[in-house]
Every structure is written in structure tokens, then in C-alpha cells.
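In this section we turn from sequence analysis to structure. A common task in structural bioinformatics is to predict how a protein folds when a small molecule is present, because the ligand can shape the pocket around it. The inputs are simple: the amino acid sequence and a SMILES string for the ligand, here flavin mononucleotide. Study the lines below before reading on.
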Amino acid sequence: MKPIIKILALSGSIRKSSLNVKLLKLAVTAIQEHEVQVTHIDLRDFPLPIYDGDLEEASGVPQNARALRELLLAHDGLLIASPEYNGSVTALLKNTLDWCSRPADGIDGLAPFRGKAVGLMSASLSPFGGLRGIIDLRGIMMKLGAVVLSDDVALPSAQHAFDSFDAFVDPNAGKLVKQFTSNLIGLSAKLQSTSDAFSL
Ligand SMILES: Cc1cc2nc3c(=O)[nH]c(=O)nc-3n(C[C@H](O)[C@H](O)[C@H](O)COP(=O)(O)O)c2cc1C
């Protein structure tokens, strides 16, 4: 029997009316059309202090970062929707990734990311759809050892992209997200079978 693919979905914005959370929810719905398990988490449920080496030395990696590391380890793929702030990654997302890349519980720092399929999306107010943030995030995820899907979703002028039911105004955006999520599932499956073969 084929093992089920598991994808973890999170947003780099925890704002109540976050456009990125709206985009993420539509992508999660698209994933649910496949035989795939998707876990949508809210980073608000995993608050972390700003990374501080002294704090780590005194108290270790915080429980929320260790819980996030466990979640990452338990999933084959990671789907991130994040705004760009000043042309780069949000502090929330970068800080979360920094804590999650610290060794903990006898497991090396990069283990939660190594060989993991990652899909990147961004919704922004600008006509570029947060593309610069995606480029930076792609570099970070690759540095962590993840395998980042070559295509991504950059949703421009996102304040006009959703209707009152939080559905896409433009049906082409929906088609793009469906194709993107199915590519992410395909990459996750490919990497899962490769890692299964290596662990034989
Ligand atoms: C500190 C800060 C920096 C921002 N920098 C950019 C930027 O570089 N490019 C951009 O397109 N939008 C930028 N924005 C606007 C965001 O696109 C907008 O706030 C967006 O709604 C944030 O995503 P969210 O709705 O998911 O929270 C910035 C917003 C903040 C608060």
C-alpha cells in the first residue's frame, strides 16, 4: 500500500484578516481534493521569543520550536504562504525557521527540513505579489536542505483578489493554485519514495 503523503501548511503572517492566510486556505482546500493529509497550523499557536543564543544556552530550544520541529519531521511536504516585508521574509517566519533549525531532542538542526518538499506562495498589495520575499525564502529553505518546488505562487494586488466569501475573484488564480498544489504533492511523493528507498 502506498504511504499517504502528509503536507504541513503555515503562513508567515498571523494577522486576523491576513491575505496570505486566505491564499493558504484556498491552497489547503485544493490539496484536500487529493488523497493527501494536510495539516494547517497557525504560528500564533506557537509563540517564540526572538532567537537569542544566551537564552538557548540557559533554557534550551523552547517547547514550541520543538513541537514545530516534530510536526515538520512528521510531514513530507511544507507549504508556506508569506507576505514580503521590505522585500524579504517576515521576521515571524525567519525567527520560526531559525529556532526550528537548532538541534534539539538528540536530532540535528536541519533534520526537519532536509529533503523536504517545499512550496512557496505570497500574497501582497504590490503588483509583484511578494516575489522578492519568495526569492529570499527560496534561498533560506535551500540552505536548510529542503527541495523547493521550482514554480511558486505570487498573488499581486491581493487586497482585490478575494470576494466576500474569500474565494478568488479571478478563476485563473484558482487554476494556478490547483496546478501548483498538485505539483507540490507530486514532488512530496517523489521525495518520500526516494527517502523510503534509502532507508531500506
Ligand atoms: C513591515 C511591512 C513591510 C512591508 N513590505 C512590503 C514589501 O516589501 N512588498 C510588498 O509587496 N508589500 C509589503 N508590505 C505590505 C504587505 O503586502 C501587506 O501588509 C500584506 O497585506 C501583508 O500580508 P498579510 O495580509 O498576509 O498580513 C509590507 C507591510 C509591512 C507591515
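Strands lie at 5-11, 36-40, 77-81, 84-85, 88-89, 117-123, 147-148, 153-155. As an exercise, try to locate the residues that line the flavin mononucleotide site and compare them with your own expectations.
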